[in-house]
Write a structure and sequence with these properties.
Layout: E1 2-7, H1 14-18, E2 23-29, E3 32-37, E4 41-45, H2 50-58, E5 66-77, E6 87-95, E7 101-102, E8 112-118, H3 126-133, E9 139-141, H4 144-153, E10 158-167, H5 172-195
Parallel strand pairs: 1-4, 1-5, 5-10, 6-8, 8-9
Antiparallel strand pairs: 2-3, 3-4, 5-9, 6-7, 6-10
Length: 196
């Protein structure tokens, strides 16, 4: 049995990929890639977006090969309690027009467990920030709900570990550009310490 490591963009997994002696391509399509690493891990790049991530997870050859899923990446904060570089994990996953999904991991027990809201679009104005935060979520991304669906549908444990890269809202574009790489690297170091 393997662990499935899921991320949206290549820079979110560069340090992790460097830890493996061999990466074999199992599946490659525009915008997504499934790699096998050292026989114990598969790494899945989904690309950005809720619907894209749903399509990618539905195309996985055999979800029964996995014993757990670790989903990681950056998120925008919907709460003043979560400044940039705060490490968080999901316990409840929400998306517009969808039923909430509750999946809490006992791993990283010292990290705050929060509700994530997966938006169809980047939250880059105050109106969309208010809409996302009105759900009760503390952080926003664009993929985690689809990963939680995949885990629920296949009865897989999920660790959704993320790091805040920006305050979701009008400042998102500038803050994301400024913090994405360094926040991604910091998150990957936590995952590497856990895995290795």
């Amino acid at each position: 049995m393997k662990t499935l490591l899921v991320y949206a963009l290549n820079p979110e997994a560069g340090l992790i990929k460097d830890r493996f002696s061999k990466l074999d391509i199992k599946l490659s399509q525009p915008g997504m890639e499934l790699l096998e690493a050292d026989g114990k891990y598969d790494l899945l790049r989904t690309g950005i977006g809720l619907e894209r991530t749903r399509a990618v997870t539905r195309s996985l050859p055999d979800p029964r090969n996995y014993e757990q899923v670790i989903h990681f990446g950056v998120s925008g904060s919907l709460s003043d309690e979560l400044p940039v570089r705060t490490l968080i994990k999901g316990r409840c996953f929400m998306a517009k027009g969808e039923d909430p999904i509750e999946i809490e991991s006992p791993l990283f027990s010292n990290v705050s467990s929060i509700t994530f809201y997966s938006s169809q679009e980047v939250v880059s104005d105050e109106g969309s920030r208010e809409e996302a935060s009105s759900s009760g979520a503390k952080a926003v991304d664009m993929e985690s709900y689809a990963i939680a669906e995949f885990c629920r549908d296949h009865d897989l444990p999920l660790l959704s570990l993320r790091i805040i890269s920006d305050r979701a809202g009008a400042s998102t574009p500038d803050e994301f550009r400024k913090n994405f790489k360094s926040a991604s690297r910091e998150l990957q170091k936590h995952i590497i310490n856990y895995l290795f």
